[in-house]
Amino acid sequence: MSLFPLIDAPDTGTAASGTLPLAREVAWDFARDQPIWRSGKPLYVTGADAVLVWAWNCIHTERFTHDVFTSDYGQDLAGLIGKPYGDEVRQSEAVRKLREALLINPYITSVDQVSATFEGSWLHVNFSLHTIYGEVSVRDAAIGI
């Protein structure tokens, strides 16, 4: 019996050839920052869209905060708060930390065109992900720090 009977467990095994299985995630409404449900069940996306959902959730999860995630998952931007860094150094560190958080995913081959802008307690980021399925982009994601 499953702990969550409404949600089927994804196939996490690798194929016989040693390649990665098809990326699969619950579809995400980025404007509302919540999963998409249809007829009482989550809607799933695969491929590049699934990697994009994973990346979105990764950058919106603070590393080391939730025991349910490994210590590799999430971003570590909280360390930038309260430091006497100038704006350029803070932005450069935010870009480095975001790249570090995203590149742990084996489906992501590179993170390009990363920009970070601080606005009060929010960090606005834009970036392009090159995945094994193609390129996807995140535009104006607001991360509370």
Task: Describe the protein in words.
There is one protein chain. With 145 residues, the protein is α+β, with helices and mostly antiparallel strands. It has a single domain (24-144), classed as Nuclear Transport Factor 2, Chain: A, CATH 3.10.450.40. 19% of the residues lie in helices and 32% in strands. Strand 7 (108-119) and strand 8 (122-131) form a beta hairpin. The longest helix is centred in the middle third of the chain and has 16 residues, at 87-102. The model has no long low-confidence stretch (mean pLDDT 87). It comes from Oscillibacter valericigenes. It holds the Pfam family Sheath_initiator. This is DUF2634 domain-containing protein.
Largest sheet: 3 strands, antiparallel
Quaternary state of this entry equals single chain
Per DSSP, what share of the residues sits in E-state strands of 2 or more residues? 25-35%
> Which of globular, elongated, flat, extended, rod-shaped describes the shape?
globular
**What is the number of E strands?**
9
Q: How many individual helices? A: 2
Low-confidence stretches: none
Our measurement of the CA-to-CA distance between the termini, rounded to an integer number of angstroms, reads: 38 Å
Main-sheet strand order equals 7-8-9
The CATH architecture can be given as Roll
CATH topology: Nuclear Transport Factor 2, Chain: A
The arrangement of helices and strands along the chain is EEEEEEHHEEE
Give the integer mean of the pLDDT values: 87
Please identify the structural class as seen in this structure.
Answer: alpha+beta
Proportion in helices = 10-25%
Give the total of domains.
1
Question: Any idea what the radius of gyration is?
Answer: 16 Å
CATH class: Alpha Beta
